[in-house]
Write a structure and sequence with these properties.
The protein is of the alpha+beta class. The protein has two helices and two strands.
Length: 58
């Protein structure tokens, strides 16, 4: 079981179908190599707050 710390950043690497299943239609247009940035909502869930295209971070 992982230990989580306040203010910790977590990196998840996955594929589009998994992102859509987890976060719904808000992430339907995720592109190849895109990074999605999420913020905890205080109720145990994550809310998408930004998307960074691969060309911007590669």
């Amino acid at each position: 079981m992982p230990i989580y710390y306040r203010w910790q950043n977590t990196l998840l690497v996955t594929h589009k179908p998994n992102i859509i299943d987890a976060f719904g239609k808000d992430c339907f247009e995720v592109k190849e190599g895109e990074a999605s940035i999420f913020q905890p909502d205080g109720a145990g869930k994550a809310v998408p707050i930004a998307r960074v295209q691969a060309i911007e971070w590669m």
